[in-house]
Design brief:
Elements (H helix, E strand, L loop, with lengths): L2 H17 L5 H7 L6 H13 L3 E2 L8 E2 L1 H11 L6 H17 L3 H16 L2 E6 L7 E10 L2 E8 L4 E7 L6 H15 L4 H14 L6 H18 L4 E5 L8 H4 L2 H12 L1 H9 L8 E4 L11 E10 L2 E11 L4 H19 L1
Antiparallel strand pairs: 1-2, 3-7, 3-10, 4-5, 5-6, 8-9, 9-10
């Protein structure tokens, strides 16, 4: 793509994002500093259309970006905007949220709500299911008599925690020995495999184990069963913001598709599972998702981590026609802020 092609594609995307209307050659001629005639611009736009970057709605003489056009813009042409003002506002919101939060999920929900309200888009929070992930480390922490906190860390960096009630009370020293045994015995296996092996061993020959190993196996069985019940969580904030976008207000069928997409969380999970290991924001545009219901949407997400362990994905769901130059850095900086305050 030549520099002229790039400038014209960039202009089409930016003007369409701002106006929501198809963009014509005369509009671009006024927008650009380049001394090109509308006829020359029309020819370049026709070439961009032939290459799949633009499309001409049948009702208009102007053109709009395709998924490929938006993708090229995001990957090669975007100039990110400053989000310092928004981050100052976020700082105040999060200080209050942290004081009220019961756990990390509450902090993430507050961040998702902030993103939704500040961007007028749909806030998204994804906490993945845990039972299929391979164990890297398990910790048992005594929090009260007969109550322990089980902390599960997967090899992919996701952490999960669960309070477990026990019939027998243990000291922290005993719990440390139990967790050391479990980590040596089962590291690298997923929860389903561990649970199956635990049940098999306990049923096969319980008498051959001494008291310590029996207790370790029993505790592990209870802890793994508790953690294994945890399924993925997908939270949306501000779904009504979709109604503010004219491309959906003016098309009832599109609106139905959007709300159907929000209802079918399993599809969103399949999309977001691919984003968990990404360090930088992931932008999924239209049919890049692989699902027809999402063809009019964009997802901008980034992983949140604590001590290099990923525990969820934060982001926004929006129309494809959205200010990527603002949303991408805002989502990224929001996640970075959360990581800093948790560190």
């Amino acid at each position: 793509m030549t520099e002229r092609d790039r400038e014209i594609l960039k202009a089409v995307v930016q003007i369409h994002i701002n106006t929501g209307e198809p963009v014509g050659s005369r509009t671009i001629a006024k927008h650009l500093n380049m001394k090109l005639s509308p006829a020359t611009i029309r020819n370049i736009m026709a070439d961009l259309e032939e290459s799949g970057f633009l499309i001409q709605p049948h009702t208009s003489a102007g053109r709009v970006p395709t998924d490929l056009g938006y993708r090229y813009y995001v990957d090669n042409l975007i100039e990110e905007k400053s989000v310092e003002e928004e981050l100052n506002e976020f700082d105040n919101v999060m200080r209050d949220a942290i004081n009220k939060a019961k756990d990390i999920k509450d902090v993430l929900k507050a961040a998702s709500k902030f993103l939704s309200e500040r961007t007028r888009q749909v806030g998204l929070l994804f906490i993945p299911k845990i039972k299929v992930l391979k164990v890297k480390n398990v910790e048992f922490i005594k929090v009260a008599n007969n109550t322990i906190l089980v902390i599960f860390a997967s090899e992919s960096g996701i952490i999960q925690h669960k309070l477990v009630q026990l019939e027998e009370d243990y000291t922290q020293e005993q719990l440390n020995k139990f967790s050391n045994y479990i980590n040596q015995r089962f590291s690298g296996k997923n929860l389903a495999e561990i649970r199956k092996e635990l049940l098999s061993e306990m049923e096969r020959d319980k008498a051959k184990y001494d008291e310590f190993y029996n207790k370790a196996l029993e505790l592990s069985k209870k802890a793994m069963s508790s953690i294994e019940q945890e399924e993925f969580e997908v939270h949306f904030e501000g779904t009504s913001h979709i109604l503010e976008h004219k491309e959906f207000i003016e098309n009832v069928e599109k609106l139905r598709e959007i709300f159907k997409a929000f209802e079918e969380k399993s599809k969103i999970v399949k999309i977001l599972d691919q984003c968990l290991s990404e360090d930088s924001p992931t932008v999924i545009i239209g049919m890049e998702s692989g699902f027809e219901d999402f063809k009019e949407l964009a997802l901008i997400t980034t992983s949140c981590s604590f001590k290099d362990r990923i525990f969820g994905t934060l982001g926004v769901v929006s129309p494809k026609r959205v200010d990527y130059a603002f949303l991408i850095p805002l989502v990224q900086k929001t996640a970075e802020y959360i990581e800093e305050i948790l560190d």
